[in-house]
Amino acid sequence: MKVLMLASFGLEIVECAGALAKALAAGDEVHAAVLLSRKSSRPQISEAAKIIGIEDVTYLGAAIGEIEVTPTAKVPIVRLLRTVRPEVVIMQDPEHAQHDLDPDRRMIALLYAESLAIASRDWRIDECGGGDPLQVPTIFYMTPERPNCVVEISDVLGVKQQALDVLAQQNSFSAQHWRAQAADTTLQKVAPGWTPGDTDEELGRLGERQIFLSLAVASGLGSHSGAVLGEPYRREGTFLLDRLSK
Prior knowledge:
- The protein is of the alpha/beta class.
- Helix content is 43%, strand content 16%.
- It folds into 2 domains: 149 residues, Rossmann fold; 74 residues, no CATH class.
- The chain has 10 helices and 7 strands.
- A 7-stranded mixed β-sheet has the order 3-2-1-4-5-7-6, with helices on both faces.
- The longest helix is centred in the C-terminal third of the chain and has 19 residues.
């Protein structure tokens, strides 16, 4: 099976690292693409992806604050889809994106969805690399508002944490936002082991680790999902089953 991670930002690859690592372990072919990324952060994103087991990341090179759902913006995404020809796509949850005030998330969710839809039509074949139209594959939304499936990640949580550790720029960025809204004494509770004399990168690394663990517990033991440490997703559309099974 071919899996394509359509990330808005590089951190999303790590947020889905559990499912991606499990797919690779099962013998699936996994690809990743990032729409928004600073050039200086790309080596760290690529390193994180390699820790998970993804050899190459496609950087689509869009500009922050300038995302529009236009034919021109769709072309590189459609080209990627028709080249990789995934059976499963993972992307940001459009419902979650509507309430997320990070720049561009709402437009990215729409751009990816529209690109997936138009990739299945006889649209700009030559301009999009000459590949045949690709029927819309199975889509799973990450960090969904309403999950309907969970991946057990107990055996790959360590890989997810290792991948996070190399995202120095992202971790520093997260920490700077946290320090603007919370006192250091509060942040020490969020990121055990961090002290105000440490770097923002260390605060971000330890804090993001705690966030990942908390989300996994909440979707696992803290829920009725049956998982111990879970990574939640929402599958688009209706599940088609041959029969009802446990």
